[in-house]
Amino acid sequence: MAQRRGLAIMVWSCGPDDADRAATPFVAAQAAAALDLEVELLFTARSVHWLLAARHDTPIGFGRETMPLATYLQACVEAGVQMRACSQALAALGLPREALVSQCSGLGGMVAFVERTQDPRWSTLVF
Predict the structure, then answer these.
(1) What is the model's pTM?
(2) Could you tell me the CATH number of the domain that includes residue 119?
(3) What per-residue confidence (pLDDT) applies to 59?
């Protein structure tokens, strides 16, 4: 049986001061999942803040499309998207794994992301 094609998305540029841009990676992930791709989101650098439970109610997006972060997280989970926090980013911020939302699939890092870029069945996006 052939393995599914996938999309690995690195989110690094939209931290807590960029809530108007933060919805885009979630929407891209949902669109890819709707196309039956396996989807992984890796939140690194300042963007790891979007996987913190303390941010759960933060409105993200822009215009009439602004919704609580929790809405985007749940939609991704329901679509089968795997969301991971960069272990190095958490360590740099002095945050424990317990600070992450329940929708987070666990920890990830650059080695796994770069490995995806080398797999011909996977495409990558960086936000």
Answers:
(1) 0.93
(2) 3.40.1260.10
(3) 96
